[in-house]
Structure formats: structure tokens, C-alpha cells
Amino acid sequence: MAKKTFLSGIQPTNIPHIGNYFGAVKNWVESQNTGEMESFYFLADLHAITVRQDPKLFKQQTLDCFALFLAMGLDPEKSALFVQSHVPEHSELAWILGCYAQFGELSRMTQFKEKGEKQKEGEVNVGLFSYPVLQAADILIYNADFVPVGKDQKQHLELARNIAQRFNSAHGETFKLPAPDIRKSTGKIMSLSEPAKKMSKSDSNANATVFVLDSRDTIIKKFKRAVTDSEALVEYREDDEAKAGINSLMSIYSAVTGKGFDEIKSEFAGKGYGDFKTAVGESVADILAPIQEKYTAIRNDNHFLEACMKQGAERASAKARPLLHEVREKIGFLQL
Ligand code: TRP
User: Of 78, 154, 201, 330, which one is the catalytic site residue?
Assistant: First the structure.
């Protein structure tokens, strides 16, 4: 039986934070290592330019993120690990699929509406509008079965299914319809300063986000400043808004130590939040230390990085090319 295909992308803007690691990349590594699926992981640099990037910084960040992918355990021998713009099939299919997407449905995308509202009228570029079409191309070009996405991306996945269906009914079975991979994650990781909000790479509050490459001292300091509540009780209470901060810290501690919520509760019974926060900070710093060490070695080895990127791009392209050929054929393009 053919292996199922697993695919996900992340934008190479800024360094991933611990929510990206514990909520996404760590699971990818586990999935990759079971060898049950064929996996594709990429840095969505084409998506990133829907917002202006400083070219020099953008290059650095793409390298940083790629090196960090490797340091976090993604393995170019086991998975296709690549930079989106290195595989031109994505852009080509995106144009084609744009002709099977409707203006109305793209206008209704929540993310587009939200981003559009934040910007001045003259700043809403067409890339922002067709962003989900490119995402559909990313997914459909590899016949992906599972695409792990957060809630904010679910609508984009549904759009990919709709576009695929529309193409299939016009030209016959071509694309596989992807399913969102809603496997249980380790609980959502929230901003340390506003626990009602998801942790974000672009938070303006420097204490809100713990980045995977933060130093040990910084990590511990950020956790010490984390916003909690005044109850002084380390207890997980799912839908209790007042507990959002503690719930998130417990999720992190649980993800890092493998301890369950009850166990954590008894470990800190009768102790103050100070002890708990320090323990969470230290445990996170401990688990990130070997990743940071590997990262430094890889990031300083440009030859190795480049070789890995090439290997990934070739592997991805080899998988994408035949399907794109089929699409071109079905549309009626002359092929040379
Ligand atoms: N839009 C996604 C994000 O910002 C990144 C992304 C691009 C992606 N293409 C994808 C995720 C394909 C999953 C599948 O998080």
C-alpha cells in the first residue's frame, strides 16, 4: 500500500517560538521518525512576501529557520525539507489554481479580512488576497493526505478542497482532497503576558513570547514574568478564563516533562507560583539547550545547509513535476 503523505509549512519570518516547537515541529519529528508517512516540510517564503520583508534580514532568517528545522530533528534523509521558492512548481500551480478559485470566496477568508482591515487601502496587495490559493497549490501538488493546521488555517484548507473538487469535476480526477490533521496537540501555548491570546512570533511585548533560541537566562526571566492569577493554585481548569495563564504554563510543563496535570498539581501543592514558574522556565531551557547547541553548529556550516536545501528541493520537485505535467495536459497547454 502506498504511504500517506503528510505536509506542512511555516513562514521563515522570525525565529520559531516554543508554541511552534511544542505545538508543531516536535510532532512533525515524531511523525517523520515513525516512517509511516511520506513527509514534506517547507519554509513558506513565497507567503512571507505578502508583507514587506527586508531582503538582507529575510535571507538570514530563512537560513536561521532552515538550520533550526534541522536542529529540532527534521531529517533530510527521512523527509523532504525545503524552501518553497526553490520549488517553482508551487508558483506555477498557484497561477493555474487561481483560475479555479472565485473572487467571492477569497474575499470571505477571515484571515484576509482581518489583515486587510489592519492595513491602509493602498497597502493591501494582491498577494495577500490570493495567499490561500498558493497555500492550496502547496498542498495539492504533493497529493497531501494530512495537513496539520491551526484553527486559523482551517478555512484555507477547506478552500483547497473546494478548488481541488472544482478542478476535478472540470477535468476528471486529478487532485486528492486533503484532510486537516486534527491530532491532539499538547494544548495551546498562549502568550505569557496575555494568556487569552495565542503566543505569536510578532508580539510587540518582548516578554510575551519565548523563542527557541532565547538564552537560558532570558527564558527563565520571561517565565518568571508570566501573567497568572491571584489564586496561588497550580491546577488545570480547561474552560476557566481566569486559569488561562496557569493552564498554558501547565501545558508547557507537561509537554516538556511528560508529567500529567494531576502530577504537576501535587508537585506544586502548597508552593507559590514563583517556584512553579521557575520550574517551568528551567525545564524549557533544559530541553532547548541541545537544540541550540546543534543549531549553532549547523548554522555555521553553510555548505551543509546549502546541500540540505538542494536535496530537499530536488526531492520535492521530483514529486511535484509529474502531477503538474498532468494538470498542464488536462488544461490543454501545449507541452514541449
Ligand atoms: N499559511 C501558513 C501559516 O502562516 C503557512 C503555510 C503555507 C502552510 N502553505 C502551507 C501550512 C501549506 C500548511 C500547508 O501558518
Answer: 201
Joined grid coordinates for residue 312: 530537499
Active site residue 198: yes
Residues in the chain: 336
Q: Return the DSSP state at 281.
A: H
Q: What is the pLDDT of residue 182?
A: 63
Angle between helices 302-331 and 151-171 (to 10 degrees): 40
Query: Of ligand 1's atoms, which has the minimum distance to the CA of residue 10?
Result: 5
Are the CB atoms for 138 and 42 separated by under 8 Å?
yes
Kindly report, residue by residue over 233-288, the tens digit of the pLDDT.
Answer: 999 998 899 999 999 999 999 989 999 999 999 999 999 899 999 999 999 999 99
Strands of 80-83's sheet in order across? 80-83, 37-43, 4-10, 146-147, 179-180
- Is residue 138 in contact with ligand 1, taking CB distance under 6 Å? yes
Task: Write the DSSP symbol of residue 9.
Answer: E
Q: What is the pTM of this model?
A: 0.92
Active-site annotation holds for 115: yes
Q: Which amino acid, one-letter code, is at 257?
A: T
Residue keyed to cell 547547541: 293
Residue 242 backbone dihedrals phi, psi, to 5 degrees: -65, -25
Rounded-to-integer distance, Cα 229 and Cα 236, Å: 12
> What b/e string do you get for 306-334 counting C-beta neighbours within 10 Å, with b at 16 or more?
eebbeebbebbbebbeebbeebeeeeeee
Tell me which residue of 182, 150, 148, 190 sits closest to 19, measured CA to CA: 190
CB atoms within 10 A of CB 141: 26
**Coil, strand or helix: which one is 20?**
helix
- 224 is an active site residue: no
Q: Is the CB of 45 under 6 A from ligand 1?
A: no
